[in-house]
Amino acid sequence: GVENIHGSAAIARAYSRAYEETFTLTFVTGRTVGIGAYLARLGIRCIQRLDQPIILTGFSALNKLLGREVYSSHMQLGGPKIMATNGVVHLTVTDDLEGVFNILRWLSYVPANIGGPLPITKPLDPPDRPVAYIPENTCDPRAAIRGVDDSQGKWLGGMFDKDSFVETFEGWAKTVVTGRAKLGGIPVGVIAVETQTMMELTPADPGQLDSHERSVPRAGQVWFPDSATKTARALLDFNREGLPLFILANWRGFSGGQRDLFEGILQAGSTIVENLRTYNQPAFVYIPMAGELRGGAWVVVDSKINPDRIECYAERTAKGNVLEPQGLIEI
């Protein structure tokens, strides 16, 4: 009864406060309903098993409320196709063993206590080795981070230690790549930019008869409301975990159309500035080979945002300006 509601509120308060004071991580290993779903979000870091949902209300209760058979399962409401693409879930796993492995791996990137030293390990490859990956036309963010095999099967090392990069939010806002890696055995947070056009899939709502699935192309190297929010969220998480930051900046700017402004691109961009201004660890902004940084995108990651923490670098072939040449010609 009412006592259960009070108890649930106390749990929510304690877990929300715990995120501020220590490391919190939720592993959804079974069906998570009601206050359990809120806890998955309040703890911020979340791993979901592929066969278990995160929901507020059961599908049968919703069907009774709507007066017809609309939903057929809990997975339809809160499975990974929903929660891994909306920013709630960081990682998805197939079973409990994989989930526990990812928990232990995540813990290996964070200090034992808030403000403590980072868990530095012996690197698998020397930190002074050259970066062998060289982009041909555009910079593949994952190849630049973790390396890639070339057409002959030869390994081309990336910027960070081999096999150390763990991507999070992979299914959400795919034009930005976020995750944790190690550089010379030192854990760091990484934010990079997708250069290819990605498709954003918005599922249909079975509760609305005229609703239909929508697929929208998202251009690479552009911040949209969801990808800007993802960037701001990653900055907040990395700062809480005490990680040095690397931003492989390769943005042409923000998308400023009517829908983007309605969906909060201005708020998300401002949050990026705020989270960088309050970043307490060293932050390195690097424009990679064949990369570019223009206008408003440059403004929100400039070293003046946090002069004591941020340093900016650029590869010799990188470009930066207020406007692209075509825009300057028009003016």
Automatic annotation (TrEMBL):
Highest taxon of the lineage: Eukaryota
EC number(s) on file: 6.4.1.2
Pfam family, one: Carboxyl_trans
A biological process from GO: fatty acid biosynthetic process
Record bears the keyword Metal-binding: no
Domain CoA carboxyltransferase N-terminal: 1-122
InterPro entries: ACCA (IPR049076), AcCoA_carboxyl_beta (IPR034733), ClpP/crotonase-like_dom_sf (IPR029045), COA_CT_C (IPR011763), COA_CT_N (IPR011762)
UniProt keyword terms in alphabetical order: ATP-binding, Ligase, Nucleotide-binding
A GO MF label: acetyl-CoA carboxylase activity
EC class of the enzyme, as a word: ligase
Ligase as UniProt keyword: yes
Residues of the CoA carboxyltransferase C-terminal domain: 126-331
Protein name: ACCase2
